[in-house]
Write a structure and sequence with these properties.
Elements: E1 7-9, E2 16-18, E3 22-24, E4 30-34, H1 35-68
Antiparallel strand pairs: 1-2, 3-4
Length: about 70
Amino acid sequence: MNESEELMQCTKCGEWLPRSKLELMKTGTRRRVCNHCKWLYYVKPARERAWLRELEQRRAVAHQQKHSFRLSKP
C-alpha cells in the first residue's frame, strides 16, 4: 500500500481500506463499497436472478411444447 494513499471505510462491512480497493465508478469517483462487498451484495444476486429467469423461460417453453403436441379427441 502506498503510504500517501487515503483510506476509506466500506459502508457494508465497515473495514477501512485504501481507495484502490473500493468500487470505481465510470466518472472516476469511488463508491464507498469495497470490491468484495460489491460482489456479495450486487453482482452475485444479479447473476442468480438472471439464472432463475432463464430457468423459468426454459420451463415455459417446455410446457408450451408439451401441450402443442396433444391430439384432440374426436
